[in-house]
Design brief:
single chain; mainly beta; 22-stranded antiparallel β-barrel; five-stranded mixed sheet; 6 helices; 31 strands; 8% helix; 56% strand; globular
Length: 610
């Protein structure tokens, strides 16, 4: 693994030197104004990036028949969202067969990783009403974002301006669901503000699966007429019965409460050639778990994690191309009755450069991230992206990269009657490659990608044999993963109304079963076949409908088919919605021992006051 990463780093340096020479010679015939200034972070121009990146737009969100981000992301091929229950109370996020600890979630570019465990990643997920779009980068993204982007990253981009508006949303339906929310936007002379508050509750679809969830969101832009300063503040609280969520199937009385909060400030400085974007933030997560809901004295965990961070990202445009660089500094503190009181200091330096060659048809972006962990030493994440524009609509691309993940505090120190951490764990490592092709036009877009990942020292909780009740955190020797992915969308018109048919398929094959059998707690149940499709239609002026189909087959042989649908009726300021989930009552499990809900309905009313 280290040899592969060394070769990648050598190739990276060679490409920089050779491309530098060619780029300098070409500047005589290529106008500087033709070079497109962009970032090598996840918000690259969609048509020009040389990675597999998917965008879920606000229109896609509206047509998704989803009520939470967890429901929404299930409709993306290659994403495995393993939900426990409904309303996103607890869900784990996997990309291309990786674990929930190997995917990084960002909100407006702020990293929401949690040092305790990746189980809390989706605790930070925002309500759909405040989301402008979701950017999904698949494959190793450590050189762009750092170590938690082992298999990919998801960036939630929030709305910046709702003008002057007020909307009220009410929903009720099966299992005693009752949801209410209000969203307010105001645009003042020198500032703008968005405020959202909602509450989601249910009696539960089976014993001890009730929930009471709340979301609070504020986004403000101050000093708009001079040097704008952006503030984001979020708070999510989840209280839910966790029947069979963790431990064993017989643990029917479990209960959990989580709190996740974020406050961040950012701004931007620009000159003709240089852009500098500083940011500071504070993220907090609190998790209280009780084994027996009505008797917390039997077993109770309380973990509180705080992360304070500051980062500066910049790009500089010169005759040689665009250079991106940055520094990310953070400190993590955890207080826990199980994991102990611990802290970790991290510093990451980023450097990458985009070259444009052959009349801007060829782009080459080598880069590297170097991270220091106070308890795990230094690590480097080199990588390179290459793309070639075959026509105005067709592009071929490829990338290679190395990635790492240090163990979470749960991996290292967690201890209960069935689980034992391991303070001697080694760092996870992987070397990944990908090639693909994509096509864009107003009516049709599509992509095909083939990928491979050679990983070693992957961390999972393992039993010695099937009779053993205790799972111990262990470095699995080696795992090879390969697969391919297809996405396509066709936009057409019927009776002057827009229609969309979108499909996606991901095939994944790994050899983890060859060495792990049925002894693994988390890695075993890889999503081998994943097919999704969405038909969004409008046949009448005020009525639109959406049908979503999902097929999943796991390496264990379990498979299921789920159909969802929604109907929306718009009458000026009022919108009525009906959402049907699991229409044909499929019997399936996504995570652990938790059967998903049977067919259910949700009726909604939205009123826009302004």
């Amino acid at each position: 693994m280290k040899n592969n990463c060394f070769l990648a780093l050598t190739l990276l340096v060679s490409v920089i030197v050779n491309a530098q020479n060619k780029q300098t010679k070409q500047q005589d015939t290529t106008a500087l104004g033709e070079v497109i200034i962009n970032s090598t972070r996840i918000n690259l121009p969609f048509k020009e990036n040389s990675r597999t990146i998917s965008i879920i737009s606000s229109e896609d969100i509206k047509n998704s028949a989803a009520n939470t981000i967890a429901d929404l992301l299930q409709q993306v091929a290659g994403l495995d969202i393993r939900r426990r229950g409904t309303s996103g109370s607890q869900a784990d996020l996997y990309i291309r067969g990786g674990s929930f600890d190997q995917t990084l979630l960002l909100i407006d570019g702020i990293k929401m990783d949690d040092a305790q465990t990746g189980h809390h990643t989706m605790n930070a997920a925002l309500p759909l009403e405040v989301i402008e779009r979701i950017e999904i980068i698949k494959g190793p993204a450590a050189r762009v974002f750092g170590q938690n982007a082992f298999n990919g990253a998801i960036n939630i981009v929030t709305k910046k301006d709702l003008n002057n508006s007020v909307s009220l949303n009410l929903e009720t339906g099966s299992f005693g669901q009752l949801n209410a929310g209000v969203t307010v936007g105001t645009n003042l002379e020198n500032s703008s503000h968005i405020v959202h508050i909602d509450k989601m509750s249910s009696a539960g679809y089976r014993h001890n699966t009730d929930y009471d969830n709340s979301n609070y969101f504020i986004k403000s832009i101050f000093n708009k007429n001079k040097k704008a300063i952006e503030m984001i503040a979020t708070f999510q609280e989840r209280k839910f019965g966790a029947n069979g969520f963790y431990a064993r199937e017989s643990a029917t009385e479990q209960y959990e409460e989580t709190q996740n909060s974020l406050i961040g400030f950012s701004t931007q400085f620009k000159t003709d050639n240089l852009t500098i974007a500083p940011r500071v933030y504070w993220k907090r997560n609190q998790d209280e778990y009780v084994y027996i809901r009505n008797n917390p004295t039997v077993y109770r965990n309380l973990h509180i994690t705080n992360k304070i961070g500051a980062e500066v990202n910049a790009n500089y445009t010169s005759e040689a191309g665009i250079t991106g660089f940055g520094i990310d500094i953070s400190k993590v503190y955890i207080t826990s009755n199980n994991l102990g009181d611990r802290n970790r200091f991290m510093t990451t330096l980023f450097l990458e450069h985009e070259f444009k060659l052959l009349d801007n048809k060829l782009d080459i972006t080598p880069g590297v991230a170097v991270t220091y962990f106070s308890d795990f030493d230094f690590y480097a994440f080199p990588g390179i992206d290459l793309g070639y524009r075959l026509t105005d609509h067709l592009k071929a691309y490829g990338n290679i990269g190395c990635t790492y993940r240090i163990p979470t505090y749960t991996d290292l120190y967690y201890n209960d009657s069935s689980t034992v951490g391991n303070p001697n764990l080694e760092v996870e490592e992987a070397f990944a490659t990908e090639i693909g092709i994509k096509y864009f036009s107003p009516k049709f877009s599509g992509s095909l990608a083939l990928y491979n990942r050679d990983a070693q020292n992957l961390i999972d909780f393992i039993r010695e044999d099937t009779t053993e009740a205790i799972y111990t955190a262990t470095n699995i020797a080696k795992v090879n993963t390969n697969g391919f992915e297809v996405d396509a969308a066709y936009h057409f018109k019927l009776s002057d109304f827009n229609q969309t048919l979108a499909v996606g398929y991901n095939f994944l094959d790994d050899d983890i079963l060859d060495q792990n059998k049925d002894l693994s707690r988390y890695s075993l149940n890889t999503l081998k076949h994943h097919f999704t499709t969405r038909l969004s239609t409008q046949l009448f002026k005020n009525i639109s409908q959406n049908i979503i189909y999902k097929h999943a087959e796991r390496t264990t042989g379990d498979s299921y088919n789920v159909w969802d649908a929604s109907l929306a009726i718009n009458l000026k300021q009022v919108e009525f919605t009906i959402t049907a989930s699991n229409i044909f009552n499929a019997d399936y499990i996504e995570a652990g021992f938790v059967p998903m809900p049977s067919s259910n309905l949700l009726f909604g009313l939205r009123y826009n006051f302004i």
